């Protein structure tokens, strides 16, 4: 693993710089939405009971997808970016439908709506080739 990190020339400062909010217009809006979705997914994940493994794992996946989107792992025109953004949109809505923790449903719906706003805004502005 250390050899792979050296080949990519990856250091913690680069990761922290990518996690920090950007200052240019639309990218700052992207970052704010991703931060909110990550925090909501984290709260929803901790609100699940011990017997609710699927919603808990999906909420963790939404948080991981938000971090992947924030780190710009994929080129905006790549298919992987579309899959990551679609997951940020769809999975919170699925969580809201299958969870038994009724207090987490509104938070999951809000995360899904914000994920949908991010998905369509990112697609319209960054992925259409313009």
Your description of this structure?
The protein has helices spanning 2-8, 12-19, 25-47, 53-70, 79-98, 105-127. It is built from six helices and no strands. The chain is mainly alpha-helical. The relative contact order is 0.15. The protein is globular and about 40 Å long.
Spell out the blueprint of helices and strands.
Layout: H1 2-8, H2 12-19, H3 25-47, H4 53-70, H5 79-98, H6 105-127
Helix pairs in contact: 3-4, 3-6, 4-5, 5-6
State the main characteristics:
mainly alpha; 6 helices; 130 residues; single chain; 76% helix
How far apart are the termini? 37 Å
Global geometry: globular
Mean pLDDT: 89
Alpha-beta classification: mainly alpha
**Number of helical stretches of at least 4 residues:** 6
SS strand fraction: under 5%
* Residues in helix, %: over 70%
Short description:
Helices cover 76% and strands 0% of the residues.
């Amino acid at each position: 693993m250390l050899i792979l990190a050296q080949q990519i020339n990856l250091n913690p400062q680069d990761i922290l710089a990518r996690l920090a909010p950007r200052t240019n217009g639309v990218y700052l809006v992207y970052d704010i939405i991703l931060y909110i979705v990550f925090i909501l997914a984290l709260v929803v994940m901790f609100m699940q009971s011990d017997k609710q493994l699927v919603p808990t794992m999906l909420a963790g996946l939404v948080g991981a997808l938000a971090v992947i989107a924030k780190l710009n792992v994929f080129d905006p025109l790549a298919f992987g970016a579309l899959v990551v953004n679609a997951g940020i949109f769809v999975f919170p809505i699925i969580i809201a439908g299958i969870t038994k923790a009724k207090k987490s449903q509104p938070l999951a719906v809000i995360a899904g709506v914000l994920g949908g706003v991010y998905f369509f805004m990112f697609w319209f502005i960054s992925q259409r080739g313009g």
